[in-house]
Each structure stands twice: as structure tokens, then as C-alpha cells.
């Protein structure tokens, strides 16, 4: 294992970065509110849903059926929910999960359309603004000239 020459300096910078992150997160959470609605109203709430965070989709009995996240600026909660509503048979959407649960073939277009309609008309969502510490740290390190092996958050 290689020795880090300025470990204490690095740890102090990490602590400062973490403190700033927590302060910024607290401010963002105070400004942002939890967004809720019917899946069919996602387009009407586009502005509110263009956020990073966690979302939960509930069935018509208000039982949670899916929990997902959107942790980069490139793929917001709005985009995730739209993907669930209009996704195809090859991606991991709620519709595919509903079809699997009902033992329906993903090739069955009529069943797919029925499940999309069910999701759109009967299901609701809650979107909770949240920030990913991992992605923020990756961006912070890269922006400060550090070369990382994982740059997924950039």
C-alpha cells in the first residue's frame, strides 16, 4: 500500500468538504419540498421533478411497489418517472416488473399497454429531494484536479 504524504491535510480537507456538503444539503432540503402526485400527472409537475433524489411509487391501495433514485443532474426524478411510464421491454421499469409479476410476456403489446395505463391512472408517487454524497465527492475531487478511477458522478 502506498503511503500518502499529506494524509492529515487530506483528512482536514475531507472534513471541511463534508461539513460544507451537509450545510449545503440542509439548505437545499429546506428549499425543496417533497413532491407527490399521480403518475399520470408527471408532465404537469416537470419543473418540480427536475431534481435529484429518491422516489417511491405506490399502487392503488397506497402500498409501495417501487423505490428508485435519480442522483445525477443528467437523469432527474422527472426523467426516471417518465422512463417508467414510457419505457420499453428492455429496461427495468415498473411496467416490466408488473408484467413479470402477472406472468405476462414482455412481448405482449396489449398487456404492456394495459400495465402502462394502470401505472398512469392508478399509481401515485412521492419524490424526495436528496443529494448523493458519493457523487458530490467524485465531482469535488475531479474539479480540484484529482484523477479518480470512478467518474460516474461527473
Reported CATH architecture:
3-Layer(aba) Sandwich
DSSP strand content: 5-15%
> How would you write the strand order of the largest sheet?
1-4-2-3
Q: What structural category characterises the helix and strand content?
A: alpha+beta
H-E string: HEHEEHHHEH
- Indicate the CATH class: Alpha Beta
Q: How would you describe the overall organization of this protein?
A:
With 154 residues, the chain is of the alpha+beta class. It has one domain (34-143): 3-Layer(aba) Sandwich (GIY-YIG endonuclease). Helix content is 47%, strand content 15%. It has helices at 7-31, 46-49, 77-86, 94-101, 109-122, 133-143; strands spanning 35-38, 53-58, 64-70, 124-129. It has a 4-stranded antiparallel beta sheet with strand order 1-4-2-3. Helix 4 (94-101) packs across helix 5 (109-122). The longest helix has 25 residues, at 7-31. The radius of gyration is 20 Å and the shape is elongated. 18% of the residues are buried.
Short descriptors:
154 residues, alpha+beta, GIY-YIG endonuclease, four-stranded antiparallel sheet, 15% strand
What's a concise summary of this model?
This protein is α+β, with helices and mostly antiparallel strands. The protein has helices at 7-31, 46-49, 77-86, 94-101, 109-122, 133-143, and strands spanning 35-38, 53-58, 64-70, 124-129. The chain has one domain (34-143): GIY-YIG endonuclease (3-Layer(aba) Sandwich).
Give the topology.
Elements: H1 7-31, E1 35-38, H2 46-49, E2 53-58, E3 64-70, H3 77-86, H4 94-101, H5 109-122, E4 124-129, H6 133-143
Antiparallel strand pairs: 1-4, 2-3, 2-4
Helix pairs in contact: 4-5
